[in-house]
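name: query_chain
kind: protein
chains: 1
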Amino acid sequence: MEEGQLLVLRSTIYPGTTEWLSNYLEGLGRRLLVAYCPERVVQGFGISELKNLPQIVSATTPEAEEKAGALFGRIASEIVRLKPLEAEFAKLFTNVYRYVEFATTNQISFT
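structure:
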């Protein structure tokens, strides 16, 4: 990656990873713009949900947040700006909600 390039993390990550990665890269002398914009779409509905779900944007610097917001603003109807730790927990809570929803449905259907 080139200096000043935007690096967007989308997957589920451990809370604090975005800041850790930014600091790690900085320690290596790399100047990258690190953002965390968690993917929260249901399999099979990615295209419609990218447009219709508010996109969470977080970053380690204002410049990275601005670039990530501009990127996702092209496709999303709404942008929600959070701090990286808040966005990381939002992704985890979304995962937990979906797992509980699936588990409850499965439990009811098998009883």
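note: The chain has one domain: 6-110.
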